[in-house]
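User: Reviewer 2 asked us to show a designed sequence for the structure in our supplementary figure. I'm pasting the structure tokens here. Could you produce the per-position amino acids so we can include them in the response letter?
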């Protein structure tokens, strides 16, 4: 079994409150990756409440984003449609890395057969993609984990490249 994890491909990270032109550029590649993927697809959705500004993250990043129920919180429409077609499980996460995601992939490996590979795509390379890749590596250290760099974007191009280097150093394969 192969798993594709689509990290936080939400409107606020693409064209909304924290959007970037680099994030907009990867949308079509992420759609192609999902559409052509032969395996299980899981997606994460950054999820905050109305109290975001009172949280630790809100104090360090005072830009309200991905507030549950808003348009910015929603996964980009075309990607959302593909996730539905693939019967993807969507995991809401209140922080960068999702412990629920880590537990879920470990459970799949333990109950449904050994996972051959886990591939991550999405936003932002230097925050949520790296956090979830490392978390998955901690839950399943013997399963190959990869990130498709062409289907990821960071807060800046420089921080994207630094995150890819850090993941490589932690034995996460970086694909182009």
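Assistant: Here is a per-position design you can include in the supplement:
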């Amino acid at each position: 079994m192969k798993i594709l994890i689509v990290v936080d491909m939400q409107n606020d990270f693409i064209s909304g409150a924290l959007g970037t032109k680099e994030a907009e550029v990867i949308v079509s590649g992420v759609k192609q990756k999902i559409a052509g993927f032969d395996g299980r697809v899981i997606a994460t959705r950054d999820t905050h409440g109305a109290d975001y500004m009172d949280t630790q993250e809100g104090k360090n990043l005072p830009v309200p984003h991905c507030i549950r129920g808003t348009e910015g919180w929603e996964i980009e429409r075309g990607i959302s449609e593909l996730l539905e077609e693939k019967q993807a499980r969507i995991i809401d996460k209140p922080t960068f890395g999702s412990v629920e995601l880590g537990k879920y992939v470990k459970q799949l490996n333990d109950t449904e057969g050994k996972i051959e590979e886990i591939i991550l795509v999405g936003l932002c390379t230097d925050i949520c993609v790296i956090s979830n890749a490392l978390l998955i590596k901690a839950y399943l250290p013997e399963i190959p984990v990869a990130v498709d760099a062409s289907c990821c974007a960071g807060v800046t191009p420089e921080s994207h490249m630094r995150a890819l280097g850090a993941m490589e150093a932690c034995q996460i394969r970086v694909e182009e």
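For the response letter, you might also mention the following. The radius of gyration is 15 Å. The chain has a mean pLDDT of 98.
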